[in-house]
Write a structure and sequence with these properties.
single chain; 522 residues; mainly alpha; Growth Hormone, Chain: A; globular; MFS
């Protein structure tokens, strides 16, 4: 599908009504809850683990189950919209999100909590791409910029604000309130959906003609692959029969998806959109965007916790700096879309994202949160530009009829990129720490007079008549080696992120200009 397939706009373009804007507001609120809940339990996991009697590995499934469910359901949202209609789908998703949020809040054991989180992910995953669809179908091109900005703010700020809000609620009241907070928001969302969406909107898909090969393939393929990416590092990858089995199932799932694409009358998801050079470029850049967004959310708090002793709230205050540019840019978004070509904006955004990663390649053991201020502000500006323009470029690259499929693909690419990034960062981190530990240890010769003098001095300092001075001196030396190796590994990780982003810059040149009038306010 190309831009040529999009009908010319009438001379006197319609204006969005109040009902249209209420629909956009509803979509934005739904997307905000869904993206916020991806990470809202991250800071609370140690507390939850203790209260429900779970091991550290088991507790990670509180977060993983949500992400897996969300990744599975997002690409099915376009088919479900065609099946039951947008209004019915939104009402169902918001209702079940409320129900499963309450189940999570009432949970007294790990099994119930994981069931609740899985239900949240399935319901929340429907609220993210439908927000994109609402913008594309309810707003004229000249007013889509505002809707895009609101959606972009939720997608970027949601995962960042989640740990801060979750940590604050846990410390102030209880971890249960990280879920109860959704109830009043969902009540508002349900009211808006009932008000802003026509009740006679019915789906045009039929269960009998459904692409069941494609549906099964998406559920099995994406679900298993996400678990592999999330749990692979902890399970030592292919040394684990569990990971090997899931990988085989994932391949089987994607083969089933390919069969559906080939033979179904109407495939469950229109993957052919990716073959379009403009939308395909949006998809790949969004994938890398997800890699960086979720990797940074993982790397910075971990570095600050281990090196400077920051708690979740302090680390969250560093992360939230990247959300400031989005808020500051919102009043200027229509002017930006009217003035700056999408290719220039995306090249600039990717270049700034690359530079922000490179700024974080000079970390030391003395680095504190303030050292990330410049890179976080630059990263936030890059993320704002990229999300806004990629979102609008995705809308402009397809027809209104294909907007639900484009929304599903655009959003699943970002989440899938996040899973790939987290898996890659965890694996690369372990490898680089081991590498640097070995290199530093090789550089410290036991026969070196400087080393011997240091060990003798530290041994004497620690020996309080117990005879353990030398042993404690070696322990201190090992700790310092580990700390330096850890810092050097993180420098390598940010360098790797910068390199990956740099590789995607040429893709920006393939994008098509936005549709005439996009972002203009009259």
């Amino acid at each position: 599908m190309t831009a040529a397939a999009i009908p010319d706009q009438p001379t006197e373009e319609r204006r969005a009504s109040l009902q249209d804007w209420l629909a956009v507001f509803a979509g934005t609120i739904g997307a905000m809850m869904a993206t916020l809940d991806i990470s809202i339990v991250n800071a609370s996991l140690p507390t939850i683990q203790g209260e429900v009697g779970a091991s550290s590995a088991e507790a990670t499934w509180v977060a993983t189950s949500f992400l897996v469910a969300e990744v599975i359901i997002i690409p099915l949202s376009a088919w479900l919209t065609r099946l039951v209609g947008l209004r019915n789908l939104l009402l169902t998703a918001a209702s079940f999100f409320t129900l499963f949020s309450v189940i999570c809040g009432l949970s007294a054991d790990l099994t119930t909590l994981i069931i609740g989180r899985t239900g949240q992910g399935l319901a929340g995953g429907l609220l993210i791409p439908t927000a994109f669809t609402i913008i594309a179908t309810r707003l004229p091109p000249s007013q889509q910029a505002i809707g895009t900005a609101a959606f972009g703010a939720t997608a970027i700020l949601g995962p960042i604000m989640g740990p801060i809000l979750g940590g604050w609620l846990t410390e102030t009241w209880s971890w249960h309130y990280a879920f109860y907070i959704n109830v009043p928001i969902c009540a508002l969302l349900l009211t808006l959906i009932a008000t802003a969406f026509p009740s006679d909107k019915k789906g045009d898909a039929q269960l009998a003609d459904a692409d069941w090969f494609g549906i099964a393939g998406l559920v099995i393929g994406l679900g298993c692959m996400t678990v592999v990416l999330e749990e692979g590092h902890r399970e030592l990858w292919f040394e684990s029969k569990f990971i090997v089995g899931l990988t085989i199932l994932s391949v089987v799932g994607f083969v089933s998806l390919a069969i559906g694409q080939r033979y179904a009358n109407q495939p469950v998801l229109k993957l052919s959109l990716i073959r379009d050079r403009a939308f395909g470029s949006v998809f790949l850049i969004s994938l890398v965007f997800g890699v960086v967004l979720y990797s940074v959310i993982y790397l910075i708090p971990q570095f600050l916790a281990l090196i400077t002793g920051y708690n979740a709230l302090q680390a969250g205050q560093v992360l939230v700096l990247s959300g400031i540019p989005m808020l500051l840019l919102m009043p200027f978004i229509p002017w930006l879309f009217r003035t700056v070509d999408v290719r220039i904006a995306v090249v600039v955004g990717l270049s700034m994202l690359c530079l922000s990663a490179l700024l974080d390649t000079e970390l030391t053991a003395d680095t504190v949160g303030g050292a990330f201020t410049a890179s976080q502000i630059l990263r936030g500006l890059a993320q704002a530009l990229l999300f806004l323009y990629l979102n609008q470029a995705a809308i402009s690259a397809v027809s209104e009829l294909d907007a639900p499929d484009a929304a599903s693909l655009f959003n699943v690419s970002r989440n899938l990129g996040g899973s790939i990034g987290l898996a890659a960062m965890a694996t690369l981190q372990e490898q680089r720490i081991g590498f640097h530990q070995l290199r530093i240890s090789e550089a410290i010769s036991a026969n070196n007079p400087v080393t011997q003098e240091w060990l003798a001095r530290m041994s004497k300092q620690f020996d309080l008549g117990t005879g353990e001075g030398l042993e404690r001196a070696y322990a201190v030396l090992h700790a310092q080696i580990s700390e330096q190796a850890f810092v050097m590994a993180y420098n390598d990780l940010f360098l790797a992120l910068g390199f990956v982003v740099a590789l995607t810059i040429p893709l920006a040149l393939i994008l098509r200009p936005l549709r005439q009038g996009s972002g203009m306010m009259h």
